[in-house]
């Protein structure tokens, strides 16, 4: 008989069993798929022949460069903040959307509404205050409360975010300018790691042995003007455009000129692709720029290259010196003295690609105090000091020599006119329209040039209107004094009726609609 003083005792057992899969009783079976003729593409001979057939297009060394992530905001680096500022007259929002524009602080200040008094702020309990006496959970890791506050995502392309990071970059580069920052810009604190990274930069490859030798601020070059509104073309040759001259590089390529002519061999194919793209842009890609034939001309004498640089550079002090221009001038067929350039090569465009000028930039390092400068620095560049000037690239062109044109000196264009072997050049003063086109980049970014740029714009418009009026006069013929070749009905019914002004001085030929007049 059991003792009455005995007590009950429970035994707790935790058993674990392994349930692993048994090994397969037989080896796996694979499907036998006939690969056909793919084996011939896996041999070393095919790879070698492919490398010989296809010429790789590789940009290396200076052509590759280092990627620079520009912010893409026009005018910001030049002080124009209009692109990132809110409009002066913001649009009126719908009352239902007004609450969506409230900030977190404004929502907190509103408090709870009268009809939602049962709501209260969520409180999270911590498990650290709970004392557990269970022997099996005594040593368990306590769970930390999960924070429900997460930072709102920041759009990388948000204008305010870009503006803050640009300002932060200037604060890192120029700490002395921090007290003069614009008060509207929210400051981003500079960390110690960021200051050390600026003071001791590391090459993108991670190589610790590569150290920077100098620093250059990135600036636009307003003195480099083109007829395309300040954009440039990157031209790449399959081979050296000119052979070496006395064992050295031929510097005539630096002052060479290129004339573009239509390429009849590729024009039909390009026109067909363009028409297909215009019919259905979703199904066809844009064919890009129209293919052209490029004719390169260089000075006749290689020793004239330094003189050509001085003669064609407006800011050179010796530009008008007869000692610079007289040695290279030659008499043209019209009897005028001009600079001769001879045709050297005829190229066909192997590839023409229009690119975004905000993403593709050419970068040039310039030191006004360097002894290797080909021309003396201007007052602006001397004031700016050392700088890395960038040039927007709008088109990339790859040229290959057109052997048929080189072998045929009497190559003719579409107009059946033989291509000239010698070109005679002489600089002239730009007209209003040409000056306006060449200074568009400076007009967009340079605020100090704003008033002068508006005057150029007005002069260019006046020149176009005068040219249109002159064309109308040539088309309609001269009129009698005080008359206009347009009826009153056309004036009343059409606001865009073209009126030919009287510039004939009262003389014009007789017409059929003139009234017959009897002799006195």
UniProtKB/TrEMBL annotation:
Localization per Swiss-Prot or TrEMBL? Nucleus
InterPro entries xref list: RNA_pol_II-assoc_Paf1 (IPR007133)
Start and end residues of each stretch annotated as Disordered: 130-160, 495-520
Q: Superkingdom of the source?
A: Eukaryota
- GO BP terms: transcription elongation by RNA polymerase II
GO terms for MF: chromatin binding; RNA polymerase II complex binding
Q: What is this protein called?
A: Paf1 complex protein
